[in-house]
Amino acid sequence: MTESNTEAVKLAEDKVKHEPPPLYKILLLNDDFTPMEFVIEVLKLFFSMNQEQATRIMLKVHTEGVGVCGIYPSDIASTKVKQVVEFARKNQHPLRCVMEEN
Ligand code: NFA
Hints:
Elements: H1 3-18, E1 23-29, H2 36-47, H3 51-64, E2 66-73, H4 74-90, E3 96-101
Antiparallel strand pairs: 1-2, 1-3
Helix pairs in contact: 2-3
Bound molecules: phenylalanine amide.
Residues 28, 30-32, 34-36, 39, 58, 61-62, 95 line the site of phenylalanine amide.
Organism: Nitrosomonas oligotropha
Family: Belongs to the ClpS family.
Function: Involved in the modulation of the specificity of the ClpAP-mediated ATP-dependent protein degradation.
């Protein structure tokens, strides 16, 4: 291995050790059909919110069109998005959930 290559490896290792992982916002989007109570259940089940927090976020999405329900590293964010989308689909609701880089 060349000197410049070992130096590049050291720098990459330092980056892995010291830098926090990139974070992703999970967004819920409003629609006209998903029941408010179902959205509240989603927020309680997948985002560990209590009734009061879940109601506040649901109403924000309902009135403003979009709302942040959590911020996580990529693997956790993508797992949660999949779980929410699958849970909505199984219950035949069109609720949309997406992630975006912070
Ligand atoms: N707008 C939906 C309704 O009036 C409720 C809703 C809130 C849907 C948040 C999706 C997200 N039943």
